[in-house]
Amino acid sequence: MMALQQKRCELEEQGCGGCNLLSLPYEKQLQKKQKELKALLGKFRKLQPILGTEEPWHYRNKVISTFTYHERKLDSGIYIQGTHKVLPVKSCLLHQPALDEAVEAVRQAARVCKYKPYDEERHTGLLRHVLARHSLLTDEVMVVLVTASPVLPGAKNFVKEVRRRCPKVSTIIQNINPRATSAVLGYQEKILCGRGYIEDELCGVRFQIAASSFYQVNPKQTEVLYQTAISAAKLDGSQSVLDAYCGVGTIGLTAAGKARSVLGVELNKKAVQCALENARKNGIKNARFLCEDATKFIQKMADRGEHVDVVFMDPPRAGSTQEFLDAVSRMKPDSIVYISCNPETLKRDLEILVKKDWKVEMIQGVDLFPGTKHVETVVLLSQQKPDDTIEIDLDLDELDATSAELKATYKEIKD
User: Fold this and answer.
1) Whole-model pTM above 0.85?
2) H/E element holding 40?
3) Which terminus has fewer CB within 10 Å in the chain: N or C?
4) Which residues does the annotation mark as catalytic?
């Protein structure tokens, strides 16, 4: 990978805390992440070198900005790390520039409309957050204005002002969140203009993305992630695939061209609707999607003795559950492809699966989040046979100095 120019971030110096590796050259960031993955997961298998990106700047296609008062006027930004104090943000080195332009347009329009920011302590005011999403395919921006009340005075004027200041904004949604909660989005929405969604493309498949849909924030590296996962599964057109925690169907629909059938399971109703529409628009007829709790659905399949060839699982940061892993093991798929955004919960889940006679065949880190501590990991697992061996990845120098006998034994095995 070529040497990349280092950039200075003023927000980091003001306590932003969102990009805790930004001061490190990108090559050093990758080395650090590889080392940390190895420390957590090396006991399961020797790791493949982490897959970095050619461009670690301006990759984020999503931003959430929280409203506040700053110097006696409405502003917005990010919480300072460890606090509920908002640091105003005009631009970020990781955002797609169109997102910063859209959020600035929202701020200016909100000032024109004399909207007040929501006060968490007094429960007064109107504006809580603005969420913006960018499509790399169309260069369009979706704006989601999160309000504490369903009433948005002068909504038509607000829409007019936003679109005048940022023509890339193609749709604006009002999301109503009256709850005393740290969750950004509420359950009720109004489309103020446009279609209420944007579209993007991954691996040749076009996706419809709604306000609450899960969609990876780095589309270029997401293609690398999904290609890695699908390649690991060794799909040849004959396999049945289960896509658990499927979201808007990104993994399942990307894999559908190489699978006999795809079944996606997701609890978020809007995401499932998007997945079904995505399959229809792309002419993909061998994929279906169900709105179900993934764990309960897998348990029912296992109880009925049903089988699939490959399970793709991409759980949230909390990882999977004992119940889900038990049910998947009872289904006896040929392989599991586990995509994880949290190496610590991945380690916990792999320990459970290994005890259930699953063998870790491959571990591959993919850097979707340059400048931050976060990393995605793809793990391939297969049913372990009695004569299978497990390849471990340890440095002799990392073993305790008193463990001379263990060192000698490990060196003998490795040689």
Assistant:
1) yes
2) helix 26-41
3) C
4) 341
